[in-house]
Design brief:
Length: 276
């Protein structure tokens, strides 16, 4: 679950870094010891409890992520490109994460006036400690503290540092289904980009198998944000699908829909992930 608000000020994406990461995603991996089944953060609103194998890495790349929100006659469109997350297995049950968005564009329209802003994003640093079943099988649980650093600017970023804790839990169900719950609490950055406030969220998900290499996930998420400018509660519904042509590679796509007036109206995204 990407719970971070990204940031941006510089014009244009970092094409070189994005190309290198994309090439790594599609390249061959040298043979080695037998590894766990591929278990990814993408796609969806929740967070898995599994961790990456010790000494190995997984790269996850959001190729495109578009969101639209309408509030009181105003419209905001946000496009993220190359939203990258690299995960590395430190021990058999602990992984380190580094995330960054190469490019974001925001267009806001109000009373016939259009404002545009774009650039790069904030930096995410996180650790995930699995507490039970690091491969994600059976009943699995974990804890994930994270920190966001204001490495970007005003378009898609928070403007200050933030921190939080995510607690993912999942369990197998009959017929190959899987239930998941993700709870989180955070010191979220204020809307005025200075200081922090309390926010907390919960995501409930159901994974359904759709063949040997595909799967579909349905989710409902609620988030309570206690910003000093006014508290809001957001409700979202999400559906996502993933296809794994090999044991090392996955492609995904998904959509989230706002279920109340405080939530983002619509979000569409697609991405790719690969074990390196």
């Amino acid at each position: 679950m990407r719970v971070v608000r990204q940031t941006a000020t510089r014009r244009g994406p970092r094409v070189g870094a994005t190309a290198v990461l994309l090439a790594a995603l599609l390249s061959r991996t040298a043979p080695g010891q037998e590894l766990r089944d591929l278990c990814l953060d993408r796609p969806g609103l929740g967070t898995p409890a599994c961790t990456v194998d010790r000494g190995h890495a997984i790269a996850e790349l959001g190729l495109a992520d578009w969101a639209q929100d309408r509030q009181s006659g105003n419209r905001s469109d946000t496009l993220l490109v190359a939203d990258a997350l690299v995960r590395y297995g430190v021990t058999d049950s602990l992984e380190a994460q580094l995330g960054w968005t190469a490019f974001g564009h925001v267009r806001e329209r109000s009373d016939g006036i259009t404002d545009r802003n774009d650039g790069t994003g904030d930096l995410l640093v996180a650790l995930r400690q699995n507490l039970h079943n690091p491969d994600g099988s059976g009943f699995a649980s974990g804890v994930m503290p994270y920190l966001t650093l204001p490495a970007g600017g005003t378009a898609i970023g928070a403007g200050d540092w933030g921190t939080g804790l995510i607690v993912p839990i999942s369990t197998d169900l009959p017929a190959g289904m899987r239930f998941s719950f993700t709870g989180s609490i955070e010191a979220a950055v204020d809307d005025d980009r200075d200081g922090r406030h309390l926010a907390h969220a919960a995501v409930v998900g159901l994974d359904l198998p759709a063949g040997s290499a595909t799967g579909v996930t349905f989710e409902i998420a609620a988030r309570r944000d206690r910003d000093p400018s006014g508290s809001v509660t957001e409700w979202l519904g999400g559906v996502s699908g993933a296809w794994s042509p090999t044991d090392l590679l996955q492609f995904d796509a998904g959509a989230n829909i706002g279920l109340n007036r405080d939530a983002t109206d619509l979000q569409l995204y697609l991405g790719v992930a690969r074990r390196l």
